[in-house]
Amino acid sequence: MTKTQTHSKAKLALAILTSPSAAFEEITQRKLLGTALLIVAITGLISTIGGIARGAIYGPALYLALGKDNPLTWIGLCLLYALALKYLLKWLSTELDYVTAIVILGWSHVILLIHQAAGIGYDLALLANHPNITAIQILNALGLFLPIWFVLTIGIGLQTVYRMPRLRGVMSYMVVLIVFTMGFDMSYAQAHIAPFQNALHGIQTAVGELEAVASNPATMFANPWLHSADQVPRLAASVIGLILGLWQMGKCFGWDADLSKKRLISAGIIGALAIGTYTAIIHKTNYYNRFATAQRLYNSDKPEQAADAMVSLMPVIKQNYPLMLDAANTYYLAGDFEQSAKWYGEYERSISKDVRDESGTGPKMALSLAYTGYGSIADARGQYDDAIKEFSRATKAWPEFKDPWVRMAITFDRMGKYEDAIRAGNHAVKKLDSKAPLVWVALAQAFTRTGDKTQANAAIAMVTGLNADLCKRIASKTDDWSNAVSKLTREDLKFPLEKDLVAETKKPVKKKK
Question: Taking the complete model, does pTM exceed 0.90, yes or no?
């Protein structure tokens, strides 16, 4: 009789990476269920460390991701996925033992354990004063590759034990992941995102951190740096998985009725406490409603209060540059130029310090928004030379950006430099395809002042076509447009002046041969 060689559990874990078929043969023969669940728990523990680190780095809202990033949730989801996989394969005429399914899924988590550790390394690498680009690229590649390897390994395990086609095992697990992602993540996230479809960009970004990424199908791979903070669906699903999993294991191991009942009740109590505590924290922090309140104040023409609300939310998610910009723009709208300049400055400093782009294009584009803000404040204060300097700086940083060209035309009108106003306005219209009504207001005044009534009437007609109410408010006769820009309000001048910041790139027309 030949004695089967047994290996240490550490060697078997390594073999999952190097020789998964051989590893699964021995693992399933020895029914190493306890170790499988331990591996899942350790993976969850590492994800907890990552969740705490990300909360410390990116802001307290990210601590909410601990609803998923903890051992209990990982174990519960593993049990739930194994149960769903069992019934799916049964429907496909393959009988899968539930305990064996847990063993295969659990031991495959060796790969996700590495994946979670790589996620922590990725965040730390980004924080370095002089980040190692090569290391970041490698870790990013691991973040994309390891989840795919994890799913393939499950397919190998199912093929090894049940002699089914590997593709069937892979696709079956993928179906389970997709169904749960859509059911527990996407529907929940989309319901929360829907009210913010027309919100300010900074508020949209913040709500995206709280909710939106859960609707990204990539989360089916449990990617540690593609996450959402609000994890109510995952936590609830894990509790369901824990209860159903224990019930199924009781049937597999033949637990007596009293023992099964005690364990199920214990799991239910633990789950209820976990969900209750987590939802209480969400209600106490109230991040989602606070962002909704800021947007509601903005929509209700209460810019000062809206901007104050945005500023109060800055610490919630750090490095939210769009929210800084929104606060600066909203203070400008409220006429609080001191606070507006402060937050444009904070935005500029943060972008200059934190945004790294080898080509320099990204930071320049972002900084152009701050320069345009400085120019708008200077224009509102009557400091027209300073305004032109800032707008010029913005156009040099991001030549395709329409906004500073339009504002420059308006400021030149205020200065009485009508030829310069015409040049700036024509550049915005002809070179950048600006659709902003205000560029035509500026051109209408400039042409009126230079005596070109034909061009002035054409510009007025454009204003009428784009915004008839604005046209009526400014003037009814051509001669009355000689001081048109003086009738513009901060509401008219609020950022952005038009929906598309830059002109659409036109695809070259292929010549017929």
Answer: no
